[in-house]
Amino acid sequence: MIVPNIRNPFLAALAHALQKEMFSTGRMLLLGDSDDNKERESEILRTFIERRVDGIIWYGVDRDIDLREAHAAGVPVVVLDKTPAGSGAASVFINETEAAFEATKHLLDHGRTSVGIISGPQKNLNSQDRISGWKQALELYNLCASDCLSFEADYTRGGGYVAAKAMFSGSVQPDAVFVSNELQAIGLLAAAAEIGVRIPQDLAVVCFNGTINSAFSTPTLTAVEQPPKAIAKASIKLLLDSGPFIVESIECDFHLRRRASCGCDYERNTFDRDQ
């Protein structure tokens, strides 16, 4: 498995689900962390191919992947994201535009009228998908997706903290925000606590790629959740049941877990425990 940053709790949960599923087939999962560096990502891919691995599960820094070396070596690859047309890769993914739309719409359904976004690096295609979903929800409510409501940040706690500070000091103060990553949302909560912004009274929050950590923040975070177990099963099935040039795509469902940060009534329940 190739990941951009194993410190991301969602990627850690996904890797955990994959190793459990892989172990049940009598195989082991090797993990390569590219540290959000595309050159290092290519080096890891090349090393795995040289070590003659049975297959590769790839969660890339971005979608512009080059699989020619893997194809030449006959190594099957499953990408955990949408893949560009003609990439020749199988994929397992959720619709990130639709997920961002549902998250933003949920904030609007709460009666919020000025919904901002903390996005990931805007050059990344997954960031663009999430921005698109945010814009589509605003358009549904005849609201403008103003640049002064959009804040770009790394997918880290520090990125979310800095973006939130910029948002709180801006000329336009949103009453809600869609945050593109759980780590960013944790950083936002820290910035809000320092400044005295109350969540959700002053600012309603929904984030993307929620994990069990969202159930134990203060306040608890409403979050779009991907299904690690379903993604793991689908990915390994594609690798084991197909040949080296598999091109099938499987779309998995996402779930909006409603908690306190958006203004929903919430009590911790059996879903909110370590799996």
Give a quick set of tags describing it.
275 residues; alpha/beta; Rossmann fold; 2 domains; 6-stranded mixed beta sheet; 4-stranded parallel beta sheet; 8 helices; 12 strands
Structure description:
With 275 residues, the protein is an alpha/beta fold. It has helices at residues 9-23, 38-50, 68-73, 96-109, 125-140, 157-168, 182-195, 228-241, and strands at residues 2-3, 32-33, 56-58, 77-79, 90-93, 115-119, 150-152, 176-179, 204-207, 222-225, 249-251, 255-257. The strands form three sheets. A six-stranded mixed beta sheet has the order 7-6-8-9-10-12, with helices on both faces. Strands 3-4-5-11 form a four-stranded parallel beta sheet, covered by helices on one side. Helix 1 links the parallel strand 1 and strand 2 (32-33). The chain is elongated and about 55 Å long. The protein starts with a strand and ends in an 18-residue tail after the last strand. The mean pLDDT is 91.
Number of helices: 8
Tell me, rounded to a whole number, the average pLDDT. Answer: 91
Distance between the termini: 21 Å
**How much helix, percentage-wise, in residues?**
25-40%
Q: What is the CATH fold-level name of the largest domain?
A: Rossmann fold
Shape: elongated
Q: Under the CATH scheme, which class of the largest domain?
A: Alpha Beta
Structural class: alpha/beta
Q: Based on DSSP secondary structure assignment, what is the total number of beta strands?
A: 12
Taking strands numbered 1, 2, ... along the chain, how are they ordered across the largest sheet? 7-6-8-9-10-12
What portion of the residues fall into strands of 2 or more residues?
Answer: 5-15%
Q: Calculate Rg over CA atoms.
A: 19 Å
